[in-house]
Each structure stands twice: as C-alpha cells, then as structure tokens.
Amino acid sequence: MMTRIVRTAAGVLFPFVLIFGFYIVAHGHLTPGGGFQGGAVIATGIVLLVAAFGAGEIGRRIGPGALKGSEALGLLLFIGTAALAFGFGGTFFANWLANGGAIFGNVVPFGPNPGDLNTGGVIPLMNLAVGIEVLGALSVIVLLMFKGVREETE
Amino acid sequence: MIANLPFIAVTVIALIGIVVILTRKNLVKMVMGLSLIEAAVNLFLVSLGYRNGGIAPIFTNAPAGEMVMPTVQAMTLTNIVIGIATTALLLSFVMLVYRKYGSADAGVMRRLKE
Amino acid sequence: MNGIARTLTILVLAGALLYTAFSLSFGAPAASDMDDYFIQHGQEQTGANNIVTAVVFDFRGFDTLGEATVLFTAVLGVGLLFRKFSAEEDE
Description:
The complex is a heterotrimer. By secondary structure, chain A is mainly α. Chain A is 66% helix and 0% strand.
C-alpha cells in the first residue's frame, strides 16, 4: 500500500488506460494493434492498480472468479467464432462475414483509404476474444505469483 | 558492413544472453539471459522482412511506397507471447526452488530433495 | 562448465554468429511470392486494412489458435504450482 498521492493518481489513470487498451483492440483491423497488444495494455493497467494498492486488496476486490472466467470465456469465444464457419462458410476458420453486407461486411477497394470500422469480417470478433483472453491470463499470472510470495512470508 | 547493423545487433544481444547463461550461477540471472536470447530472435525475425525504402503493411492513410513483408511480423507476435508463457513458468519454478532449498544458487541444488 | 571449455564454446559461437551476420543481405529479401500475394489480395479477401492482422487471424489462423492455447496452458501451469496442499495425511 503506497502513499495517498500514488493511490489517487493510479485511481485517476486507470480508466484512461482501460479506454486506450480497448481502442487498440477494437481498431485492430485498421491501425497497428489487435488482440494481443490491446490485452497486454489492459493487463498493464491492472498491474498499475496492484502496484499502488497491494496485491491482497486487489485480489479480494476483483475476486478469483472474474479474471479466470474472462480468460476461459475469451478462448471459448475464439474457438466458437472459428467453428461457426462450418455452418456458413464451409471450412474451419473461414472468414464467413467478409464481403457479406451483414455485420462487418463492407467491401474494401484496393489501395490506401481512410479506414472504415464496418469492414473486416470475422477479424474484429476474434480481436475482441483474444483481447479478453490475454487480459485475463496476464492478470491471473501476476496475482497468482503475488499470492505465492505472500503465503511464503507468513 | 554498416548496412548490416540490425544483424550485428542481433548477434551481440544473443552473445550477451548466451554468456550470461554460461557464466552466472544465480537462477534469476539465468532466466534474464534466456529472455535476452528471445529478444534477439524477435529482432532477427522482424529485420528479415525489410525492403529498402519500405513502409508498414497497412493501407489506412498509407503514403506511397513499397510495403515490407508482413508474414514475419505475424511470426514475431506469436513468439513474443510464447516468450511470456515460458518466462512465467520458469520464474514460478525458481520461486518454488527457493522455497525448498533456501537459496537461489545453482551450485547448491545437486539432487532431488524430499 | 569449467573455464577452458566455456571460453572455447563462446568463441566458436561468436565466430559462427558473426559470420552469418555479415553474409546476409539486409533490405533485399530473396523469395517474397507469398507476401506479395498477401499484400495484393488481402483487402479483397478479408476486408481488413491491416495486412499483419489479416495474416495473423485469417490467412494463418491456426498459429493464433496454438498460441492462445499455449497462453492458457501457461496460466494452468502457474496455478497448479501455487496451490495450497490441504491434507497431506490421506494417501
């Protein structure tokens, strides 16, 4: 538990880090970034909270179920999006939403253009799934290692 | 010779990592040496795909020019995540070894302990 | 490893790595047929502007599936190593 200045600053900075991480995840098919990078940024925000408030308090507040559940949910969403291509596209991992006109299916002409968020097919959904998985996995690793150190020094 | 600077930097970083693993006895320093070798391999992968005067392979507001190769950058992304997984498991093992033996020195632990 | 073998290994490795670093050509990749295909047809087949993301998630999606599984297994391993041993008496 650090001083009051550090705790207040971490609490003020955490929502901005969260928004920045989700922006990187959501625009993964237009700008540099994607699922893994955005998930790592959000996990860094959670580590900022752990450094300011102490691992015991963050482990008690966020709880053991939420982060582990988000990691498993991310992997299941990824495999589910890939397996849904059996019914629509034909093969496993086919891009069954691209150029379709449905949810993410605008057609992109060849060449440089200002990006359109509505394109990309199944890629933004996979970006979201991998982002949720990576933020859960990295946060769980950090919290488990802190718990291992604390129960050794008791 | 000066044009090959990224490859020479890869060699220097990899050599420092190998020397650290071979000469240090502390387990945490050995894990740091392994992390240096992984960083050198990532730099090597990314610098293999460069084209002279190339731009990033992204079409959003792209300037004019030839694009560099995108496949090696995808491989580097995967390699970074695998490096994270390896380092996390190695450090957990080092913590458990310290708990059992009382020291993180590689010369102290010679055989399996109860 | 003791002194002489260690120094010899480091010198041999340094020589091999430096020879390779000087003999590669930087900025002119030799074979680029697959990457040219990805750059030319990436936008019309996947609809993404970012060719690296299209390669990672669409053209080479199986590698990403393997990588997500590796991350999941690492968290599983760390959680397995730090569990509490509740009862050691019952065999």
